UniProtKB/TrEMBL annotation:
Protein name per its UniProtKB record: Venom allergen 3-like isoform X3
SCP domain segment(s): 41-194
Pfam families linked to this entry: CAP (PF00188)
Compartment(s): Secreted
GO cellular component: extracellular region
Key words of the record: Disulfide bond, Secreted, Signal
Gene that produces this protein: LOC112451606
SMART domains (UniProt xref): SCP (SM00198)
Amino acid sequence: MTLTERNASLFLLIVTCLLVNHCQTSCIGKTMLRSGGISCEEKQIILDEHNRLRQLVALGQIHGQPGAANMMEMIWDDELAAIAQRWADHCAESHDSLRNVRRFAVGQNIARSWTTRPPGPYDGEPNWRRQISGWFNEVQYYHSGYSKITGHYTQLVWGDTFLLGCGYSFYYDPARGYTKNYVCNYGPSSWKLLLFGSSMCIWII
């Protein structure tokens, strides 16, 4: 299926779901419009953007941030992705308290954006580059140590973290509108990040 065909199918699905309320979802009171995991192309975008930004930090190219010789390259982890997708499909507004795996503790970044404007054929697609950059841009508030206003950034660039898995869903929320829901899990996470909690941000468009 080409990208054009896929987007046309998504548009038809959105119309059908809203007209007959026939989409299965674990989101109580909401209508799921897209779920089912991340494509190979999206996985590569997510990894490339994480590693590009982490490399900038590692090389000392971010103003006010020291270089990081121990910065590891991120690789995709299917278990973390499956857990992230499960949580994205729940449309939950909190963090997943059951995200840890037997191998290690898991950090988590969550974000949502929504609009009341009815979506067109392309509007259900995630914009991973924009979202990951938004997390990273918290660096402007970072000084040293962990704080909740820089939790996304801290998790994204944690040097010992090298496994990544993300999930995405797109759904209609009668209270807010058409919602893009991003979830990324990171492992292994620092105990400091787990102690204070990972972060969530919300965008309204």
